[in-house]
Amino acid sequence: MSVFAPTASVPGRWARAWSGRRRWPLVSILGAGIATALVALPLLFLVVEAQRSGWGEVRHLLLRHSVAVLLWNTVRLALACVALCAVLGVAGAWCVERTTLPARRVWAVALVLPLGVPDFVVGFGWVSIDHALHGYLAAVMIMTLSLYPLVYLPVAAALARGDGGLEDAARSLGLGPWQTFWRVSLRQIWPALLGGCLLVVLALLAEYGAFEIVQYRTFTVEIFTEFKLGFDTVEACALSLVLVALSVAALASEHALRGRVRGGRVGAGASRPARRIALGRWTAPALAGVALLVALALGVPVGALVYWMARGSSSTLPPASIVAALAHTAEFSAAAAAIATALAVPVSALALRHRNRVTLLVERLAHLPLALPGLVVALGLVAFSVRYAFALYQSAPELIAAYAIMFLPLALVGVRAAMAHAPVHLEEVAGSLGRRPAAVWMRVTLPLIARGLAAAFALVFASAATELTATLLLHPTGVNTLATQFWAYASELSYGAAAPYALLMVAISAAPAYLLTRRLAGVAPAERAL
Amino acid sequence: MSPLAIREVWKGYGGEPVLRGVELDVQPGSLTAVLGHSGCGKTTLLRVIAGFERPDRGAIALADRTLDDGRSYVPPERRSIGYVPQEGALFPHLSVRENVGFGLSRRERRGQTVSRLLEMVGIAPLAERLPHELSGGEQQRVALARALARAPQALLLDEPFSSLDASLRGHVREEVHALLRAQGVTTVLVTHDQEEALSLADLVAVLRDGRIVQRASPAELYEQPVDERLARFLGAVNVIDARFEHGTARTALGALPLRRRTAEEQGAHAQAGAHTGTVMVRPEQLDVRRREDGDAAAGAADGLRGRVEQCRYYGHDALLHIRAEDDQGAQLLLARVSGEHALAAGTPVSVAAHGPVAALA
């Protein structure tokens, strides 16, 4: 109980934290408790499993030569992808938000849409038209094309709401356009840029499918393969700890780099939108660049899928029903989205309405899955179910729980934004008008946050429907989802059979990706990082 | 019916207490204003009365019913206390009619109650609008109608006019005042605007650092504030040295009668004979006369000689800064004169005072 530092006062801090409000929000506390337990479960059992063989064995395992190779592979990939994503994301956002680029509104959507194509589908699309693609450079290219929207979205949002007055002031103080960009504009978008880069790194650490396709060995690929081939949970869990450590390191360095910089404004006065820079003779090159990016990131993968689907192809696998796969995907994803959204509500409500150290800690904990790649969550659940509840192993509830844990942070982003539409004083007024808390919730709070909850649900649904790694480990035997069936066909190079499954997944996640460009720009690009 | 009674209420949020033993009685049907600077605990007091917060200590009762005494606790929805927060806090997803009918039962909503309320606050034509389609004043009236719909035993208003434009404020204030009078509902209004408190309330309670420092009628408060700080908060003031003798204060402005309460207080001290202190003279208690040059030699038996140093002109009146020419403990005086009697800087004047004055502790 060290969080509740004892104080001299009576009643103590713990009692006072709750006595301030009129009622214990029991339902919320229960919900938040479940969320916390659920989120802590995978990591807990990962550690328990890893130390089963003794820490000496674990250390021996981690000091193997191949671990250093994997580490190097992962780090050099991350460095290249982050740099490229940052350049492409900032350049694209700058062109759309700050210049006179023609058809800006079209590009604003087109540049984000690659977010709706799962990374392993991008990889599949490219490799299916050029079998020579493999190794480091292929991995860098495919992941950059898949992930640059994670930088583009927050940076574009920061540029859009940035204060043009600052740039005008810089120009009037004698700085040229380039100097203004480096010394003023870049400082304004710095937190957004860092946040985007963090998401890129986390997504790279979690990715399995795309790297498997281009035969590039990262930690995640290695762990997955070892577990699938050897079914050695102890070893897989031990290696996973390195993956978690890398994610935590990424989170920590983002935190450190962000420092005390604030993107916001100092002082009063209305902010003015920035002037757009006339591109002039640079119009054609800029247009060509943006068009090329969209063509490579969106056109090639989707075009390849359409091509293979039109050509048709036979498969040696037993015929599968795409309708059944779609139904299973929808069932698992909807259940997970409902649970994640429902759990995010009490966590957000407590953190916003009953702000104290305990509720803030719970909220932070609920974001823990950000640092847990899907593979790690899945392994943690496997470790738990294999040892303590075998009936759950590879069952639908286990898969749904994995999705709900992985995408809880995503649901939290949406629900927190939604809660802002239901300020607490409205509930208080409703209470003073004679309504009991349950009635207040139904008649005031729920109608006000319903749209935000629907958006959170849609984001989690789309993310779960296109999830591959955890699904491959946890899906019930004989029950295929869109992702697993696609993977089965793609692995045996039946491109024509695989294409419809991929197109369906793209269709499912395109809508939320489009939604992102319109409403949640800036906050919700966490989607793909999870 | 017994009043709304607040007894020794303490409330803090972990750090320094915000309320430190607040005592307040509000008579049935009266309007009490709680006046204080921002951060003095006004809103906390209202929230404790409404039941949104629980006091750390103390008790609250309404009409002989204990609402909260540390053991028993009546939740807000069963207190029969209406609450109008700042900015109105209308439900954004409900129309004006639905907002006003929110606290009513299904049957009551179908009846004439809502229409009658809308009529009463003068917004019947806007019944089907949504809150964001209303002006600030209209929103405030809807919020009031909504709070009055259930005929509460008491009504709490949290800075109800502060979000309105200055031009609209006076008007809405008058309307709300007339409405509350007509309804005869027991009302507590908190405000930081002393003009609002003085002009609307039957009784003003001044809240400072979590305590009620004075509770009095508007006139008594203005004329006999408990200390200089409060005197200055309520309006401009001249603090002048005085010698107290038998119910009068001898000052540079002449002998001035003391107000009764002050006189009684001084009576106790006066047993030992005359003693000295300060009195408070409001600017409008000063009579300013232009002094002709000839008067200078004639002496000024009838007033203090001075010269206008600055004239702040407000139209309906003017505030003169007058520098006294003789040195009798009143260097700079503030005098309020009607606008047509504004005097230019440099004008020689003689100043006298009228009316009873209050001694300052």
Domains of chain A, number: 1
The CA-CA distance between the termini of chain A, in Å, is 31 Å
Q: What is the distance, rounded to the nearest whole angstrom, between the alpha carbons of the first and last residues of chain B? A: 37 Å
Number of domain units of chain B: 2
Helix content of chain B: 25-40%
Low-confidence stretches of chain A: 1-22, 520-530
Largest interface: A-B, 24 and 29 residues
Widest sheet: strand ordering of chain B? 6-7-8-3-9-10
Please give the CATH architecture of the largest domain in chain B.
3-Layer(aba) Sandwich
Continuous helix count of chain A:
23
Shape descriptor of chain A: globular
Tell me about the largest β-sheet of chain B.
6 strands, mixed
Q: Which H/E pattern describes the elements of chain A?
A: HHHHHHHHHHHHHHHHHHHHHHH
Radius of gyration of chain B: 25 Å
Shape of chain B: globular
- Give the mean pLDDT of chain B: 85
Number of helices of chain B: 11
Jot down its keywords:
heterodimer; A: 530 residues; mainly alpha; MetI-like fold; 73% helix; disordered N terminus; disordered C terminus; B: 361 residues; alpha+beta; Rossmann fold; OB fold (Dihydrolipoamide Acetyltransferase, E2P); six-stranded mixed sheet; five-stranded antiparallel sheet; 11 helices; 20 strands; globular
Summarize the structure.
The complex is a heterodimer of chains A (530) and B (361). With 530 residues, chain A is an all-alpha fold.
List the helices and strands and how they pair.
The complex is a heterodimer of chains A (530) and B (361).
Chain A (H helix, E strand, L loop, with lengths): L12 H7 L6 H25 L4 H8 L2 H34 L5 H7 L8 H11 L6 H26 L2 H9 L4 H30 L2 H5 L5 H12 L2 H26 L24 H29 L10 H32 L3 H10 L7 H15 L7 H11 L1 H12 L4 H9 L4 H29 L3 H6 L7 H10 L3 H26 L10
Chain B lengths: L3 E9 L4 E10 L4 E5 L6 H9 L6 E6 L2 E4 L12 E4 L11 H5 L5 H5 L2 H8 L15 H13 L5 E5 L7 H18 L2 E6 L2 H7 L2 E6 L2 E6 L1 H6 L4 H7 L3 E8 L2 E4 L2 E4 L2 H11 L4 E7 L4 E5 L2 H6 L5 E10 L3 E8 L7 E7 L9 E6 L4 E3 L1
